[in-house]
Amino acid sequence: MTDRWRLIGTVAVTDTRWYEYLQARPDLTEINFWRPSSRRAFLAPAFSPFLFKLRSPLNAICGFAYFAQYSRLPIWLAWETFDQANGCASKSELDARIAAIRERIRFKGGDVAEEIGCILLVQPVFFPREAWIRQPSDWRARTQTPTKYDLSIGEGARVWQECQSVARELAVQPVDAPFAAAPSPRYGRPILVAPRLGQRTFQIAVMDAYGRAYSVTDEHSLPALDAIHIRPYHDGGVHDVSNGLLLRADLHRLFDKGYITVDTSLQVVVSERLKSEFHNGRTYYPLHGRELREPKKTKDKPDLEALRWHNENVFAA
Prior knowledge:
This protein has helices at 16-23, 75-82, 91-104, 154-169, 199-209, 249-257, 273-278, 304-313, and strands at 8-14, 30-35, 49-54, 60-74, 115-126, 133-134, 147-150, 225-229, 244-248, 260-262, 268-270. The chain has eight helices and eleven strands. Strands 1, 2, 3, 4, 5, 6 and 7 form a seven-stranded mixed sheet that branches. A two-stranded antiparallel sheet has the order 8-9. The chain has a two-stranded antiparallel sheet with strand order 10-11. Strand 3 (49-54) and strand 4 (60-74) form a beta hairpin.
């Protein structure tokens, strides 16, 4: 006997100002659901539904998105990467909101005061007030932390199916690939979506995969590092960690211009053109032959086909 179909999602209490700001910006495809403390990590299935629940007395589901990545980020990096997708108009507003919440909860930051917890989400859909959905009837009133729900049975299924119905009415156009609600004759066919990383979530995912350290010399100077595509997105590359590297900003530019590459044996190759064209390059030639430090997870390791593409189409010896 096979197990029944299941879809596990998350229902999270959402700040009204955050919702209102982002609901007015339907062009955003990636958002940061941040928390004032980074001490408690958030875990969920990749690209599982993440539903936004407004506090009492509103007690309504006001939208949803898909979970892409959890990361502890310095506040400056959260703003630099997500900008207004943090649900604020400016960095100073973000700082003020974090400070106000921390004061209310008597947060003692210590060494992590400059970090916030970031639940990175993709493909958000925010409902106008008239389309809000009644929160789960079994929601515990004092709950403040994100709560897992089985979206295939009971109140979880009811809420998720209503979310899908509202999304249809709002003419949200899904991507043509399977992932979403369980079949339901009451609500019709499920919306089919294929959640994936975007440019912003890609950058953070690559940084985390490489331990926020330069993938050649293991330097940890985060402000000087760039998460880059091996094969650019505009040239057929994808926003996937395996299509990414974490390089120093100067090497990022040289990589894009074809003065350095990484070959399929994962060694750095520096072009002779630096010497012939600029009569220089002594800063970079010591890197020639260095072996790339790979991410720990197999799925995150550099895609050899992407490296081969860069070797053949961008790099010039």
